[in-house]
Every structure is written in C-alpha cells, then in structure tokens.
Amino acid sequence: MKPTEQLLTYTHVHACTGNIHQLDLASYTAIEPKAAVALSKLKKYLNLSGLTTLPDEVAEAFSTHKGILDLSGLTEISEPAAKALAKMDGGLWLNGLTLLSEQVANALSHHDGDLYLRGLTTLSDAAAEELANHRRFLSLSGLKEVSDKGRKALAKHKGFGH
After folding, report:
1. CA pair distance 5, 1, nearest whole angstrom
2. What CATH number has the domain bearing residue 105?
C-alpha cells in the first residue's frame, strides 16, 4: 500500500451499510476484494470515485452490483475489468477514463445500464463503432474530437445520450 493510499476494508464496509440510499466512499483510493464483494451486495449508489486502480478481481466482485457504481477516479481500465463491470445491473460511471481501446469499448458496449464516459475527449473510429452498440443511455459529453466516421457510427446508437 502506498503511504497516501486510503484502503477500504471489509471492516469499514460492514460498519457503514445501514439503512441508507447511497454510500459516499470517495475518500478511499484502494479497496480490498472482500470489501468489494460486500459492497456489491448492496442495491445502492456507490461513490468509489477515489479509486485510482481497479484490479480485475475487484471488478469481478462488482459484476453482481445492482445500483449505480461511480468509478470516475479511474483513468484506465483493463479489458477483463471492463467485461466484468459490463455484467452489473445499474449505472456505470467511468468519467475519469481519458482513452478507450476498441476492446474495452466492445466490453462496455454490452453493459445493460446507463454508461457515463464524460472524461473522453477523443474517440477512435473503432471505439465509436463499438459504443454505438450500447443499448442504454450513453454520455460522451466530454468529446471534442471525433472523425466523421466516428460521428456516423455514434449516430446509430439506439439508446439516449451522447
């Protein structure tokens, strides 16, 4: 653990899972897999925007979450983590991502919930074509550069947003 890292443990999670509608855990920069498993069982808005990395094991734990999951502190995500998160049932906020590979875009396009990718300022044609297959709300409000081909692909998106 890094000196400035704030680790979210199972003990912390157990202490704060009372009868509330949301958990603001944004001050934590890392999370134990056991804590992620416990949080994933809660049907709440989980603000974990302080996390700076997302191990694949933690992403897999969140694959069963039913609610909003805010991971906007992440600037990158692996393809296995994206595939795991795409399985969750609820809104997925990845507003800190600044780049999106075609493979990660493909994985996220299978997410059956609202998808927020507001940190992206550019998008490759291949990633745009993949995201166009997403069927729910898609927020790409940070985009500044998209080719004509990318715009045409996104225009085919059947959900709401952009």
Report:
1. 6
2. 3.80.10.10
